[in-house]
Amino acid sequence: MDSLKRKLLFVFSLVSSLIVSAQHVEVGLMLGASNYLGDLSNETIVLKQTHFSGSLFGRYNFSPRLAVKGSFGYARVSGDDKNFVSEKRDYMLNQVEVKDFEFNKFRNLNFFSDIYEFSLHGEFNLLPNDLNSYNTRPFVPYVFMGIGIFNFNPKTTYNNTTIELQPVATEGQGSTTYNDFKPYNLSSMCIPIGLGFRQKIGDDFFLGVEAGVRFTSTNYLDDVGGVYGSRSVISGATGRTGLHLSDRSWELNPSADPINNPNPLSEAYIFNENDKRSVRETFRNDVYFMAGITLSYTLRFRGQGCPQF
């Protein structure tokens, strides 16, 4: 019984402490833009592939210098080989080195994906945030680093229909022939790192700007991460849709007819089994970005002080 009383007293004390220090708590939102780095961006930022992003967050200020923020965010990312159709590179095609090969033109892949992220950030204020005054207007630049989990689902358009790419196993994942090559998970971890600043614009409001990069634990944000599989294996596992989306070089052949011919002319395909589908050189895994304008509101109980740190 005494043990239960001590536990209840601890919980009551903790809740009371949080209420008293509620002026340490901010709630807010961020509205902005998102983009990504990966195979279908040629590991560069393509500005025209920038999309809307937004998040809701709560921040707890432990001290004038330290804070922790929980965030739930949405972003869209996309990429398209057509952005790079004129670029050339040396490439091992069918085990033969080809000089000045127009790889992106013939790979001809594209994707888009909605991302839903929950993350926890630790923040360090480069200038102190005055927690004890309603009247001061501090300018607070800060850096942050954290950990998060996000859900994604790469898709493409095929025959005027939106197709989810993971279920059609475009590299042969999950087939009996490649049974050690499992389908990639649509949830992944990320490490958010970034910076921002916020300016107090009233007794209880901060207006700011924040930008962050998310280093992920997946190479399949864009559904591209390995090599081409066998066309017969992919066709047998996921049918004509998987076959046609695994190697879209056939779309460059005007005589290919996927509607009436479940297996487009074999000579219309450029790539074969074990040719590289992913040719990344810099980043092992895909990366995405979120940036925007932030507005937060400070929760305060008037008349209550705040401990000085």
Total individual domains: 1
Helix content: 10-25%
The CATH C-level class name = Mainly Beta
Largest sheet: 8 strands, antiparallel, barrel
| Strands, count | 12
Morphology call: elongated
Specify the structural class.
Answer: mainly beta
Question: What's the CATH topology name?
Answer: Porin
**Beta-sheet strand percentage?**
35-45%
Mean pLDDT over the residues:
90
Question: Largest sheet, order of strands side by side?
Answer: 1-2-3-6-7-10-11-12
Number of helices: 3
CATH architecture: Beta Barrel
Low-confidence stretches: 303-309
Spatial separation of the terminal alpha carbons: 37 Å
Q: Tell me the radius of gyration.
A: 25 Å
Order of helices and strands: HEEEEEHEEEEEEHE
Task: Describe the protein's architecture and organization.
With 309 residues, the protein is mainly β. It has a single domain, classed as Porin (Beta Barrel), CATH 2.40.160. The protein is 13% helix and 41% strand. The protein is built from three helices and twelve strands; from the N terminus they run H-E-E-E-E-E-H-E-E-E-E-E-E-H-E. The protein has helices at residues 2-20, 103-107, 231-246; strands at 25-37, 51-61, 66-80, 89-93, 96-101, 110-125, 139-151, 155-158, 161-164, 187-200, 205-216, 287-299. The strands form three sheets. It has an eight-stranded antiparallel barrel. The chain has a two-stranded antiparallel sheet with strand order 4-5. Strands 8-9 form a two-stranded antiparallel sheet. The chain is elongated and about 75 Å long. Mean pLDDT is 90; it is low at 303-309.
